[in-house]
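Supplementary notes for students who missed Thursday's class. We covered one full example, reproduced here. Read the sequence, then the structure, then the short commentary at the end.
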Amino acid sequence: MAHHRKVGYAHLRERLSTGAFEPSQPAKVYPVQKFVRLSDCVQVPEHAAPASDASALEHLLFALKHEELDLQAAILALKKIDPVPLVEQFSQATSSSYLQQACFLWEIANQQTLNAPPAKGATKPLFDPNLFLTGPSSKYTRWRVDFNGIGSIQYSPTVRLTPEIKALLAEDILGQAREFIQSMDPDMVERAVRWAYLSETEGSYAIEREAPTGNRTEAFAKLLARAHEEILLTEEYLVELQNLTVQSAMDQAVEYRNQQNWLRRDSSITYVPPAPEHLLPVMEGLLTLANQKDNGIHPLVLGSLVSFGFVFAHPFMDGNGRLSRFLFHKIACRNANLPNGLVLPISTAMARHEGHYLRALKSFSAPARDLWTVAKVSDLEYDCAFEGSPEIYHFWDATQCVQFGLEMAKEALQRDLHEEVHFLGRFDRVYSRLNKAIDMNNNLMNLITRLLVQNDGALSISKRKMFIAKGCTEELLNEAEQIAQEALNEESPD
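Structure (token representation):
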């Protein structure tokens, strides 16, 4: 059928076998009079679409003009587009912003310089700031292009400025966190921070379906305290951090991995990160982005990009997941100046939303997995052959990942941290009353207070039996319940 044929990026993906991910809104020809942007496609009128026999270059120029910039798709297409007709067209229209962009991106894709006349006209941004989150600008006067992507022309994840992300950014989550902490007395802040470290540790290990030992819990909490360090991320520093996250000395790294790894669920390989020979450029680009400060990128956005980008790179054989979530804190704390050593317990929130977390991961991991052929050699060994281009790990759509990171930061603050501080206030009120009225050793007093606060001033039958076994009487427990209920029913001074 003449209509519904793919044009632009979707056409180039199939025609050139680029290995680019399927566009979220592929452009297709429909019997419409004007462009119609739907959630699953862009409907293109026949008169505005490239002809059925149009060249790949014509489809690329159409995409640059009428579709949101897809850096991955454009670069992978331009690796397979002949530069001669591109230069010929540009030479006849040196002020065309779309031809300027095409030439600029062709040089990035092919790491070669085009033999073309200088561009004319005003310099224009590569990314439309009304459609994308952008980074610091770098002007490329040769092509009259202002590169305003996040990161660099070697490594640049893109984030579409969706209504959901706009709304989350408008809430000023970090400002709320600073204001909340500043409203508390120093002792309460210290206790809240200790709780946040413990909660984040438990949440991070829970995501990995592991139960940390006491030593590892302490080590990870110490690691979290380092999130506020003013230190650049390097391979050596990441190796040091990785050694703190793994359970066994046998799993400790000395450098980035030099062998292929993968992620497996049950007996299926769900994701394959870049091959060892492609890993170093990815990590160099990621760390360049991570080490940027005061670059105008929101700290929670940058933290999300670095965290998910690290997972997708998977530079170590073990510990990548936990370390990725630490890096979220590292970036957010450094760039947002969170006070008093505070971290937001995002892993606690993430553990509650595992399905959502997996969907964010799969926005990249699923199409990337499709570019690998995996053959099982043994129960623990697989032969992995990459059939794509390493650029997919450099230029990826991080929209879902960033939205998830913002949502989890919001929930960690407004639910988890707020609830814990509220709990601590109730605990203090009940403990103070019990301590004045009842003679009990400190450990038991702490335990009964916690249980009473958690259950609105009542002890379950099993808990009463436990305390009776420890020497408490029914009368004492009844008195404790009454005191706790009276204290909890009083208006909090806060």
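Commentary. The mean pLDDT is 91. DSSP finds 19 helices and eleven strands in the chain. If anything here is unclear, bring it to office hours.
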